[in-house]
Predict the 3D structure of the following.
Amino acid sequence: MVVDHASGELSLGISGGRSAAGALVRRIVVVGGGITGLTCALACVRAGAHVEVIEAHASATRLPAHIDVVPNLLRDLARLGVAQACVQRGFAYSGLSVVDERGDEGFRLPTPSLAGPQLPPAVGIALADLLDLLEGAAVRSSVDVHRGCTVNRVDSESGRVIAEDGRVWEADLVLIAAGAGSPLASALLGPARPGVLRHAWWHALLPRPPWLDRSTWMAGSVGRRLLLVPISMSRAGVAVVSTEEASGPTDGYALTRQLKSWGSFPRRIAAAIDPSVPVVLHRVTSWLRDPPWHRGAVLCVGASAHVIAPPFGQSAAQDLEDAVVLGELAAAGLDRPRLLRQFTERRSERVRCLHELTERAALWTTQPEPATDLLQLAGEIDRLVATPA
Ligand SMILES: Cc1cc2nc3c(=O)[nH]c(=O)nc-3n(C[C@H](O)[C@H](O)[C@H](O)COP(=O)(O)OP(=O)(O)OC[C@H]3O[C@@H](n4cnc5c(N)ncnc54)[C@H](O)[C@@H]3O)c2cc1C
């Protein structure tokens, strides 16, 4: 890694020696401009690569949802240089309260400080704000973001990327960051084995209750779970777990009706939600592709390779870990085969462990059984992610 002290910018050696079989990784095309695509782009451009992001949606998401930036996610945002911006846009907090359906606190879990002394332990932020600040940081770092352009074919041998509108890109490395269930990822690596978890999470934004100063998990009677997170001085996000296959309306009226049928705490939340504004019903599964997640010049990252179950905040955190590791390997000046091999070595076993632990914990939230000790599982997850990837 070489640092240009004059500019203060990282100018990382990716022009080192080429191995016999290896192509250097100078040009990277990222398919997908979600959390994974934007953070990978940021990590790779800071490593000295020329990076372009191709995103199907013409405009940024306005999904009314929050992201709970747990300590290891904030640590990795700090490694990409965007944690401070996240703190400024979001709501810094410390600790997780676990409450019952009346809102009485049963216990409080500490949130470790993993992002360093200048940063809080954790942050709540609107999903749209996080994506907006990531895209802004990527563009300022000279990433070219092409919006409103859908990729319909990626040639793994040549690294050629072909869009619906006929545009063609060529890259030394193509990242498929096109989300869960991406046909591009399946065309490359075959269909993913479906996971066992089948949840649906309602997401809504609401005015922040004045007393809400940390993430709050309501563990009510079986099937009644929600997470309330402050995301700014004036707003909060709520995520409500549902196992039912929602067949009826999926609007704010349906969500508030459900909350009003629960205890006094969710009833207070329902009263604060404006049912006429949009909410999201996010169908959540969890699954993992068998490694390796690459073929030829193409690597699947983020939800195109692994979907980690909520509610431990590890889904986006694992996307970020892909980005940080990729950036380090790009900065190390490895040729493509070695970069892909080392990426697999550093990511696949760690993601497998987290996938297994979080899936067991998530299943327990809706089907508690005595063989699972949730606090022990949470401790194992915390210990695993306390060390950077
Ligand atoms: C409502 C909601 C709430 C969430 N809350 C949390 C949370 O609190 N904590 C947490 O850790 N995680 C949360 N997540 C999940 C977390 O955001 C995921 O880990 C993350 O969305 C996965 O990011 P990704 O970039 O891999 O995929 P995606 O977010 O699915 O992004 C993929 C992008 O690729 C684009 N794309 C797809 N195909 C193509 C193509 N062919 N050509 C061009 N572009 C393409 C899509 O338009 C999309 O923008 C939430 C997700 C949602 C939807």
User: Anything to note?
Assistant: The chain has two domains: 1-58+148-194+286-365, 62-126+198-285. DSSP finds ten helices and 21 strands in the chain.
